[in-house]
Each structure stands twice: as structure tokens, then as C-alpha cells.
Amino acid sequence: MAIEWTSSVVSAAGAEIHLRRGGKGSPVVVLHRDTGTPDGLAFYDKLAAKHDVIVPNVPGFGSSPRADWLGNVRDVAALYRGMLGDLGLGSAALVGLGFGGWIAAEMACFAPHDTPKLVLAGAMGIKPPVGDICDQALIGYIEYVTEGCHDPATFARIYGERPTSEQLVLWDLCREMSFRLAWKPYMFNHSLPQLLRGVKSQTLIVWGDDDRIVPDSAAEVYAASLPHARRETIANAGHLIELEQPDAFAQAILSFIASK
Amino acid sequence: MHLMYFTEQPMKDYPQEAGNDIGFTSLLMSNKHFNPIDGSRLYNEFLENYVYAEEMGVDGIMLNEHHNAPFCMQAKANIFASLLAGMTKRVKIVLLGNPLPLNDNPVRLAEELAMIDMISKGRLVSGFVRGGGQEQLATNANPAFNRERFQEAHDLIVKAWTVPGPFRWEGKHYHQRVVNPWALPLQQPHPRIWIPGVISQETIVWAAQNGYPYICLNTSIEDTKKIWQRYDAAANEVGYTPGTEHRGYLIRCHVAETEEKALESARQFLWMDGEFTGRLKPVWASPSGYFSPSSRQTFVEFVAGQSASPTRPRKTFEQQLGDLQIVAGTPEQVVKSLRTIMRETRPGIMAFWGNEGRMTQADAQTSIRLLGQEVMPALRETAKELDLKSPFEADMPVSRAWAEAQARKQAAE
Fold this sequence. Notes:
The structure holds two protein chains of two kinds.
Chain A: E1 5-12, E2 15-22, E3 27-31, H1 42-48, E4 52-56, H2 73-86, E5 93-97, H3 99-110, E6 117-121, H4 141-147, H5 153-159, H6 165-182, H7 192-196, E7 202-208, H8 216-225, E8 229-234, H9 241-244, H10 246-258
Parallel strand pairs in A: 3-4, 3-5, 5-6, 6-7, 7-8
Antiparallel strand pairs in A: 1-2, 2-4
Helix pairs in contact in A: 1-10, 2-3
Chain B: E1 2-7, H1 16-22, H2 36-55, E2 60-63, H3 77-87, E3 92-99, H4 106-119, E4 124-129, H5 133-139, H6 146-162, E5 167-170, E6 175-179, E7 195-197, H7 201-210, E8 214-217, H8 221-238, E9 247-255, H9 259-266, H10 282-285, H11 296-303, H12 317-322, E10 326-329, H13 331-345, E11 349-355, H14 361-386, H15 391-394, H16 400-412
Parallel strand pairs in B: 1-2, 1-11, 2-3, 3-4, 7-8, 8-9, 9-10, 9-11
Antiparallel strand pairs in B: 5-6
């Protein structure tokens, strides 16, 4: 059955947040990457077959206009906590993809008892003990997304052989906002591992087996810091797991959320 | 007319094949290819040439800085400015300029510049720049806040120079418990501020609003005229009519005894694959947030390799000679071309980018001698005929803000 997706705009702390919503069931909020997110992914449909799926765009990403005062990822986490509370979704499961994983982890730290289920997929936010988070400031838009793919063909399948100017502009807006939020230190927060120790959420830490954007060593730190976490690895996937292995990834999330 | 000598201080002795192998000659090209023995010799040759330029009669020495690339060896303009403050006697020391956003402590800059002004006995011109795109990466300055940091650092420096301390500064990007530098500029109210640039509309307008001379960096005559239209319109909007003292122009200009020799050496202006900055990845030149939001589409297409550089269209050596963006020849030939530029664009300040790349030290000095002794005297005559006055000759106020404050003070008295 085709999922019906709706677009809406909500206001939180004076910022305008555009979100997509579809499906029925317990709520699952998906937090997008530093490159934003395409609409209409098979991955979203698979989650929405079982859940009420909400995909907000951080101000400055996608169709949400930039809020100049938004200065770091904790600001985003606080903003999102307020937004979810307003929508009556304060206890929704959080699924954070890459950069969105960092936001989700910060949100869990803000209200350690309020997120029963937390999924962190290739999450940024932690300084990897081995290796570094791939720095998009040093490579082009296309190179960065390509680096996130295990299979080089994934890029063309989603974005075409030659991405449109509109897509390039979207990536640039995302990149500028990422720099505003996480330029230095790049894509991590030194105090996050310590704060995660207080988080009560059941947590699934998912990594693609070929993630070249966030080193696997960061997953180890997440697993060691979060008291109720388990790890899962998706085969034949890079950083962009939802694009490369939508079935396996969605299934891992659905099983995890359904589990006691 | 104020006439200056400039060089990028090229690290000409880096191994070219190293750049060919990796496909770029900046930012991530390993500094294992930097040989400090060559570096030491070159720095001293540059110093020798600056002192020689003063002897040959130039009015000013223009200095700049760049990072992590062989096209420019100056990693800190204030270091050469300090040396020249002590080693020269007459020339203006013109910094074009200190890249403000790259600094985390503008008060320290204000102190350094005040020291240079005092040591040079009031010969400093303190230009400010945003820094190139790749400089943001080389120094870890957030490109998304480049313009905000530029403006805030500028405001803090001018305040540190003109308002007695101690005071506190709690801005968006800069925070200082105590601003009270125990070093103040000799020139009052402060050294002149000139703003160099290319086509960035926001910077042109900002310079005009502040009444700061704008120095066009080797733009084509056509683009230079467009810049002056923009500058003049912005100045008119805030209530004044700019003169030649608001206009500066940098030109690549090499002079030799024969045309053949001059043209041969002038090819070195394109020594790094036709680009003075060498080869760099477009994404380094244009990090997100650095360029004007109004040009976003143009820049992203450039970064993605789908279009040419919007800042500097690529031209052949011959095209650049034809467009007078490179001027080379005997003194007589060079004067003729430069007169055309002067007539067409009416600058009160001109900088001559005299040597570049692998030009020999002897050729560099010949060019400096001919520029100072033959070309510049002829240009001064032309400047008189065309009534091209420098900021010093026009005795213009250092800024609109200062002029307005003086006017208010007089009215109150």
C-alpha cells in the first residue's frame, strides 16, 4: 500500500521547521544527515508501513529557512525537544542518521528518561579514537556524497550522473549550516560521551560495514558510553545506509523498536 | 598619485613535478616540498628588492599574506611590515592587507599595527581583507562567519585605536575582558585603511560606505569601471561623491630594456599553470558560506566543476596582454599602456606587481629600477594632467565615521 506523505510547517522557539509525515503507528522521528535528505525514499516508506514517521528539516537545511541564532548542535537538540513536545511526540523513538545521530544523542542527553528507543546510525558527535570524521570542507559536494557510498553506482541512482544546480545549491546550503553548527571541533562534542552515560534509552547503534565518513571506532565509544546499547552492522553499506540498504536497515530498526 | 611596488613573494624553488603528480599546488600539497634553505635566500632577496624599490623612487611598498601555498611566501604581512618599518626611511608601508577573520584576537593585531606605525614614524597604511577561501581552511576560520568576523574585528580594531581604554568587548565572535593596548598608532586618529578586492559586491559597498579607498586587484578595465559604478552609487547613497583618492588599482607590470626580454619574463606572471595561485580545488577557493549568497548558484557550479571561476575568468597570456591585465615592455611601451589604464579608470593609487614566479633576481631588479626611475616619473606627469590625486594629496579623512564625528564636534563648538 502506498504511503501518503504530507508536508507541514511548525514553529518552535521562533524558528520555522518544515517536516514530512506519513504512516500510522507509534511515532518515529528520523533526523537527517548533514547533506539533508531526499524526499520519497524507500527507507521512509518501509518505516511508515508500521509507524507514524516524522522527518523534520533542521532550520538551514532543505526547505526550512535558516535561523541565524542557531549556533551549535545542542541548540538544535533543544529546539527539537520543544518541537516534539508541542506536537505531543515527546516520547517518540528517535532515528538519527549521521549528523542527525549526533542531534538524536544530544536530545537523549537532554531528557534521559524520555526516549525509550534510540537508533544511532553512523552517528557523528563523538571524536573517534581511531581515524577522523571525514571533513566535507576539504572535498566537493559530489565527492562527499560519493565517499558516503559503498557502491559507487548508488550516487547516480539517487542523484543522477550529473546533479542539477538545484541539488548543488541544496547541498551548499546544508554545508553552510553544518559549518555554522559544527565547524570547530568538527562534528563532535567533547562532553557527549560522559553525558551519554546517564541516558536510559534502549539504543541500537548501526553502522554500515564500509562507512568511510564516520570511523567505526566512534561506534565503539557510543556502545561503551550508553548503558543500554547494542551494535548492529549492515553489510554492503557505506555511511548512507538508508540509500544503499533500505530493506535491511529498515528491518533492523523495525525489529529493534518492536522488541521489549 | 601614489605609486607602489608589490610582489606575491613566490616560493619559486619548489619542485614543480610534486604539484603535477598530485594535481594541485596549494593547501594539501605537503610542506615536505618546502626547502627552508631556498626560503631563507628568497626572503632575503625580497627584502633587498623592497629596499631597492625605495631607492629607485617608489612611494609605497604593498604587502599581503597567504597560507599553505608556494604562490606566496608571506604567512604574516606584519612581519615584513615590521622589517620595512626599520629598514626603510620614506616609503609608505601598505598592508593589503591583514585578513581579519583569520585572527582570533583583533586587539593583538591593533597592537602590532600600532607598533609598526610608531617604528616607521607614521608610514603605515593598514588595509584589511577577508582572506581567500582556502585561507579559511588553512587557519580553521569558519567561512560561514567570514564577513561577520571581518566587520566585528574591524570595529574592534578601530575602537582600540581611537577610544581610550580600558573597555570591555563582548561581541558575537570576539570577547575581550580588557581592551587597553599599551601601544597606539602614531598617525591620528589612526592609520589609513584601504580595502583591496575583486568583484565582491558586499565588500565594495562596505568600503564605499566607510569612505575607505578600494584597490581593484588586477581586474579588467571593464570590470574596474563596473566596480567604480558600484562604489560611487554606494557612496552617493550615504551622501558623498568619491574622487580619485578613493580608487586604487593593482596591475601586473614588468619592465625590461627590450620588449622581447620583458615579454619573456612577464610569462612568469602565469607561472603556476596560468593561475597566480596555482592549481587548487575549487571547493578550497569557495568554501560554503564564504561567498556572497546572491552568487550561490554560480559558485556551486564552479565548485562542482560545472563552470569556470566566477572570480577570475581564465585567459591566455596574450589575451591578458591585450586586455591590459598584464603590461610588459620597455619603459616607453609600459608608460603608454599604463596611461590608457589611468585615463580609463582614474585611480589615485597604483600598485605595480613587478615580479613573479621564476623571474631571476637580476630581472626583478631591472624591472624595479626602470619602474622607479623611468616609468613612474612619466606617470606622475600624466597624473597631474589627469588630476589623479592620492588619499595623501587629497588629504582625505581616514573614514566617513571620523569625518562625521569631526563635523559634529565643530557644529557643537
